[in-house]
C-alpha cells in the first residue's frame, strides 16, 4: 500500500523550517560528496514533488509501479517554496531520505548541479529502450548542465495568446503579429470604463519569464556568448514594445502584477488579450472563476520582427538525489513515469508532456480545446528552451532584467535604464560565473 502524504507532518515541517532559518539564507554554494551505505529491503522509495496535477495523476497509478519494483513508494507533495526549502535543508545535510526529486530545470538545477546534489543520468537516458531522442529538443537540452543530463522533463509549458472571440470577430480574428496585437489592443481598450486592451504581468521579477517570448521574437536574448545582451537594440525594442502595450492599453497598477493578479482581470472579462502560460487555460473555462468561458479563444504567440519565437520549457522535471541509497529504483520510477506510454496517457488527460511521439498523436490532444491544442503544437516546434537567464542566482538576475520593463510600463525612457541594467547584469554574470567555477 502506498504512503502518499500531500504535506509534511507538522512536527517534520517545523524541524525543516527551523533548520532553514538557521541556514545562511538562500541556497548554499558549497558542494557535498555522496556517502556510501545500503538501503533496507523494507525502505520505501521516497519522492518529493510539487503539489501539481501531474503529481496527483501519477500518484493514482503508483500501485502499478510498486508491483513492478516490489517496493513501497512514499510521495510527499509540497508547495514550491516548501519544496525549495526542504531540498536546501536536506541536501546540505547529504540526506538519504529523498530518492526522486521533482525540480525546475530552469530555476534550481544549475545550482543543485554546482553543489553536487544531482545524479548524472547521461548513461541511463542513452539506453536505446528509453528513447531519449523522442523528447523535444528544447526541453531535452535544458535537462543537461555542463554536459551531464541531470533531469528528465515530465511537464512542459509555453505561452498562449488568450483572446476574446466576440471582440475580434470584426477585426479579422486574433492578431498574428505583435504589431497587430498592439493595434487591436489600442482599438479595443476603454480604460475610462475599466476595460483594457491587454493585460499581462508587469511586476519586475515575475514578468521576465513571459516577456522572454517578446524578447526572442524581436531577435534578442538575455545573453549572447555568455555576455549580457539586454542592452542590444533588439532587447531595447522588446522592452519598449512591451512597456508601451501595457502603458497604453493595460490596467492601473500593472507594475505590481504577476500571474495571480493579471489572470483574474482577463477571467472576469475586463481585457481583450492576455499572454501567459498555456498551463493555466482551465481557469478561463471554469464558471466558478471565469465569465469568459464561452468567449475565450486561444492562439499562438504573435510574430515579431524575428518571427514567432515563444519559449517551450520543461516546467517540472524528475531528478535523482546524489545521496540516495536507492538510485536504481529511483531511475526505474523515472523511466516508468516518463515512458512514451505514460506521457501519452497523461497528455490525453490534459497534462502536456515532453515526448515528440505524444505530440504527434492527435489522440493525446483531445483533452485540450482545439485552438489551444494547435497553438501548443506550433509552439513546441519553434519554441526556445529557456524563459529566464541561465544563472545560479536566478531571482537576482530577474530583478536586474526586469528593471527596464518597469521603466517602459511607467512611460519612462527605456534606453538609459536598459544600458544601466545591461552594465549591472554584465557585472552580475562575471560574479555568477565565479561562483559557478568555485
UniProtKB/TrEMBL annotation:
Q: Where does the record locate the signal sequence feature? A: 1-23
Q: Which UniProt keywords apply?
A: Signal
Read off the SUPFAM superfamilies from this record. Periplasmic binding protein-like II
Q: Is this entry keyworded Ligase?
A: no
Out of the domains of life, which is the source?
Bacteria
UniProt xrefs under PANTHER family: ARABINOSE-BINDING PROTEIN-RELATED, DIACETYLCHITOBIOSE BINDING PROTEIN DASA
* Annotated protein name in UniProt: Extracellular solute-binding protein
What is the source species? Answer: Streptomyces johnsoniae
